[in-house]
Design a protein that fits this description.
Layout (H helix, E strand, L loop, with lengths): L3 E3 L5 E2 L2 H6 L13 E3 L9 H4 L12 E3 L9 H10 L18 H5 L5 E3 L3 H8 L5 E6 L20 H10 L4 E4 H22 L5 E2 L4 H10 L13 H17 L6 E7 L3 H5 L10 E4 H10 L21 H4 L6 H15 L19 E8 L2 E9 L1 H8 L7 E5 L19 H18 L9 H11 L5 H7 L7 H12 L1
Parallel strand pairs: 6-7, 6-9, 8-13, 9-10, 12-13
Antiparallel strand pairs: 1-2, 1-3, 4-5, 11-12
Helix pairs in contact: 7-9, 7-13
The chain binds iron/sulfur cluster (2 copies).
Amino acid sequence: MTKYRCKNCGYIYTDEDDYNFLTNCIMCEGPKKDISLWNAKEGFYDEEKKKKRVWVSDINPSIQRIDNLCIDCGMCQNICTNITNISYDKQLASNPICINCGQCVMHCPTKALVPKYDYKELLNYLNDTNYFVTISVAPAVRVSIGDLFGLPAGSFVEHKLVSALRALKFDAVFDLTFGADMTIMEEASELVERIKSKKNLPQFTSCCPAWVKYCEMFHDDLLDNLSTTKSPISIQGTLINTYYQELNNIPKDKIINVMVAPCVAKKMEVKRRELPGMDYVITVQELALMLQECEIDFNSLKDSDFDPLLGKGSGAGVIFGTSGGVMEAALRAAYYFITNKKAPKKFYNLESVRGISGIKEAEIEIGEYKFKVAAVEGMKNVEEILKHKKDYAFIEVMNCEGGCIGGGGQPLLPIPQVKANLESRKNSLYQNDAESSIRVAYENPDVINVYKYYLDHPLSEKAEKLLHTHYNSRAKAVKLRKEKKTD
Ligand code: SF4
Ligand code: SF4
């Protein structure tokens, strides 16, 4: 079969008809003149060219490469360096540095890079009635999975998604926005304590596992500044295994917790000892594959609601899925914790920290406290903001463009459509928040009940034990790898 290849992005056209009708490359929109006949042997097995790839170790829990699909175009290494700031000059190919973000997967033109798939193993538990299998849905999934079923970009399909998961025979379907609200209760309380005591400022968010790993590897002097509050998925898993398990009398060793995520770094996070609770993370793409294999027609499903106890989230929990959302959610709660009053209107539309751009900032005034906050996307931008970190009290960090809406476990999109699609997903989340009757974590009735009957209050002894964690320096491991390379 005749093949053509775009010299700009490496995308391969396998069908002559496709080529004849092209005006531009469908992947990068480069001119047709740059798409030329391609001999499949070109570009393979050339050691020099292989140096252009990201290196993927066999034990990487997030991503894998199908070697014979790789054309050594170098797109993955470019994107890795641009977003994650990881340099390939001084690395060992046998033991590469990777923060598991999956952005290389999103940009690989031949689909040689793919997420590690865990859903096959999960199907075994779903088919075994001895196990009680829960699934929690991350905020950003409800505005992206529709892409895989031909729905318009940003379609808000929360209720159909719940029906789809029930059709797959999950025993309980929860909303991870509950876990996000719990994270906010603890993280905003932490922030208020730090602002009052002026200790360990700025506080950095810790819900993006790629950022946490980057911080442990390259900025271990900042570990005391990372919020100790566990990520929403670890809090959700912990509360299912304790509070929910006790109330429902389910044998502890028979609960399997799954999260459907927009992120492949979460596959790494659930393997961390410091962040227990969830057993499996599947990506949006894996969920779509499961539905296809089980012959479930997503679009014809009726709407249904999440299961009770851990099933309600506030609008603040929903906007966790977009960059700036964690910041806005935490500030709404912090305002209440400091003043005992509901935050004024502007805290429900913090325009200056919204939107898809590298660094966003705002000046905040709560009672007697005035401080600066920032929301940052991508590790290169983190390096910029760290030059002035003393100017800020609170910094939200997400690795991916737009936050979780642009995560490495989201449906693949042609590159020219990415920006517009992320805008639609972001707007859809903010619209859902604006339409929610509850827009702050502390008014979520499920959250109120957990504190009333189980945890007492944020930062209580029990909350500290169950919902907080610690981080570890990985700087030594990075240094060792570099030293080995220069030997
Ligand atoms: S893995 Fe994909 S993006 Fe990376 S070099 Fe190979 S084809 Fe290009
Ligand atoms: S997962 Fe992220 S950090 Fe790892 S190689 Fe890919 S882009 Fe780089």
